[in-house]
Automatic annotation (TrEMBL):
Organism in which the protein naturally occurs: Tripterygium wilfordii
Annotated protein name in UniProt: Calcineurin-like metallo-phosphoesterase superfamily protein
Gene3D superfamilies registered for this protein in UniProt: 3.60.21.10
Taxonomic superkingdom: Eukaryota
InterPro entries: Metallo-depent_PP-like
Length: 258
């Protein structure tokens, strides 16, 4: 979102942090300009308006300008850090993606998606994000397999997608916050790991999905309720009453210290 200049969910602290970044980045460029033999540093603020029309408080304009300069395509942070990340990655028998994958994404090509997003972040494909990064069915926005109610998870569609990726057994997704911690659906074929740890979300307790390749995945949790490897899952297989105290056939939780 920020790469395209969409700052709807940015906090005031996040704006102020980039204002400081902008100050020191420009200071660093001035110092580099005093060194013989170095290329002239380009103006990262070029083309960014000095007035942010949809922000009334003028004191935040420098922060928004700096955030835009840093994160837009070919911006210093977008190029140096964000472009190094993969949008979709397959590790062993697990597929990792922020929102989710549909059959059309796989047919388009996962490597092609990674390459094009990388090129976009590096400023080689214009300002607008690739089409598969926009809309409800985008790889970064999809919630088809990560709704907090497993009853609404489209297991048939998920099976079809995984069947087109050689060796894939499960899809591991973020994006949709799981209020009760890491959850699963579709017989562990969909694992949703966004626990909303940020204070800006739900300030959720830290949890980690451990995959060691020799056994089924398990959840490492800082929640003391799960210290006996018992974790309720709020999904289609939910048990009523005291049944919630029984282990479910999902990733096994193990208590760890945060």
């Amino acid at each position: 979102m920020n790469v395209e200049g969409d700052f709807r969910y940015v906090t005031k602290e996040g704006v102020e942090e980039f204002r400081d970044w902008g100050f020191w980045f420009l200071a660093g460029n001035k110092i580099k300009g005093l060194c013989n033999g170095l290329e002239k540093q380009k103006d990262v603020f070029r083309g960014i308006p000095s007035v942010i029309r949809n922000v009334k408080e003028e004191e935040y304009w420098p922060g928004f300008r700096a955030r835009s300069a840093a994160l837009r395509p070919d911006g210093p942070i977008a190029r140096r850090f964000l472009s190094k990340n993969l949008t979709v990655v397959v590790v062993g028998d697990s597929v990792f993606v922020h929102g989710g994958l549909l059959d059309g994404h796989v047919k388009y090509g996962l490597e092609k998606i990674n390459e094009e997003v990388r090129n976009w972040l590096n400023g080689l494909m214009g300002k607008s994000a690739p089409k598969y990064c926009k809309g409800w069915d985008a790889v970064v926005w999809l919630r088809k397999f990560s709704d907090d109610s497993a009853r609404r998870c489209d297991c048939i569609a998920l099976e079809e997608v995984l069947a087109t990726i050689p060796g894939a057994k499960r899809m591991i997704m973020g994006h949709t916050i799981q209020e009760f911690g890491i959850s699963h659906a579709c017989s562990n074929r969909a694992i949703r790991i966004d626990v909303g740890m940020s204070k800006g979300c739900i300030n959720g307790l830290p949890e980690v999905l451990e995959i060691n390749g020799t056994s089924e995945p398990r959840v490492l949790s800082s929640n003391p309720l799960y210290q006996n490897n018992y974790k309720p899952y709020w999904d289609a297989d939910r048990k009523e009453g005291l049944g919630l105290l029984l282990p479910e056939h999902g990733p096994k939780p193990v208590e760890v210290k945060a």
